[in-house]
Amino acid sequence: MPVKCCFHRSTPTNTMAWCESMDTLLANKAGLDAFRTFLKSEFSEENVEFWLACEDYKKTESAEKIASKARMIYSEFIQADAPKEINIDFSTRDLISRNISQPTLKCFDEAQRLIYSLMAKDSFPRFLKSEAYKKLVNSQQDGNHKRWLPFL
Q1: Would you state the pLDDT for residue 114?
Q2: From CA 125, how far away is CA 131, in angstroms rounded?
C-alpha cells in the first residue's frame, strides 16, 4: 500500500487509489478497463463481465426486462457449457436453475457474491502485482512529477 503524505489526496482517476479496494477499482472506468484487460490476459474476464451484468440487472425496473435479462445472464454465464461459464458451486448453480423461470432481482446475488469474493481474493491481488498495473502507476507518477515540477 502506498504511503500518503498530508498533501496527497486520491482522485478517482489516481491509479494508486485502485489498490485501496476492489470497489474503488471497479467504480473507476479506467480502473475497470485496466482490470478487464488484465483478466482477459488471464482468460478469466467472464468473472468481471458476470459481476457487471448482475450490477446492471439489479437496476432493471420492468418485469419484462427482468425476465429477458435473467435469461441472458443465465445462458451466458450460469448454465452448463455456457459461453462464459463462471466457476460457482453446484448448489448455487442449481438454485438459480430452479428459479430462473420466475426470476427476481436477487436471483443472482449469491453467485455474484461468490464471484466478487473470488476476484477480491485471487484476481485483484494478482492485478496489483502485475506489470500492467505497475506501468500504469509509474506512468501516472511520472505525469504527477511533471505537473508539480514543470521544470523537470
Answers
A1: 97
A2: 12
Decide: 74 and 68 in contact? Cβ < 8 Å.
Answer: no
Residue 130 CA neighbour count, 13 Å, CB half: 19
| Residues lower than pLDDT 70 in the chain | 1-13, 142-152
pLDDT at 15: 83
Q: How many CA atoms lie within 13 A of 28 on its CB side?
A: 20
Angle at 83 between CA 102 and CA 99, to 5 degrees: 15
Q: What is the pLDDT of residues 73-88, one digit of tens each?
A: 999 999 999 999 999 9
Q: Which long-range contacts (CB under 8 A, 24 or more apart) does 82-90 make?
A: 84/46, 84/49, 84/50, 85/46, 86/46, 86/47, 86/50, 86/111, 86/115, 87/118, 88/114, 88/115, 89/114
